[in-house]
Predict the 3D structure of the following.
Amino acid sequence: MLKATLSAAIVVGAFLAAPAKANQVNPWADCGIGAMVFPDNGTAASISNIIWDLGTTAVSSNVSSQESCKGANVKTAQFIQQTFPVLEQEIAQGEGEYVAAMLNVRGCEAAAHADIVSAIRNDYADKPAADAQALYNIVESKVTSQFAASCSAI
């Protein structure tokens, strides 16, 4: 049973650990206990963090990995981790205080919020986020690709 559970966690973790672009931090793979134990293997670090405490320590860790766990995207991951259920509802509605706060934390201009939320909402409708990390991956994908000019650099 334990072997099957660990195997499932490895497969799931491989899908959850999104590949990071140069200079882009994925808090679940690059921070926390998992990053300390598996510094050169983001997938193993992500799996470890998820198994340990569903990634909570990874996105709130400033002690274990101070140098790599800085920036607007890490703060955004922390915010998403703490407010995930409300963010899901507001994304479905297309607006809300928490979605606006998330984009403010990420450093996005208020004038671009409606367009960013619309893009996130479209991706979310196509592939619903099962957890905070999946939502974070959608947000970061949109912010860094389509809305890089409207949001501050990492």
Notes: The chain has a mean pLDDT of 74. The radius of gyration is 15 Å. Residues 22 and 125 are 28 Å apart (CA to CA).
